[in-house]
Hints:
Helices cover about 40% and strands about 20% of the residues.
Amino acid sequence: MLAKLQKEDARSNELIDRVTAYLFSVGVRTSRERAWDIIQNVHRIPYEMLVESNPVIKYQGQGTHISRKHGNQLLSIRDLGKFELKGVSSRKDASKKASIRFRPSKVLQRYIEENIEVI
Length: 119
């Protein structure tokens, strides 16, 4: 059972409303609580897939490009972007940790560049 949704953040509420409206436009009627649950779970899926398929990874070194040869460490989704799992370290200490980076697709990157003016 979903808990009653009480979001005070205006941007989160706007996102929930947009997702609810989209779902309604494709014939899915849902509550705001269920829409919020959908947002959270759909967002987590690519990260969970990378974590589940990579219980152990090698440290690649600073600036290493993740390519198809790394197989399970790259999740490329057409028209959305790429999720890259890398082993990274901090310059302050030698500890190594895993990090996932999202790179938007060329279509999304073009949309961003065309619609945002940088001054």
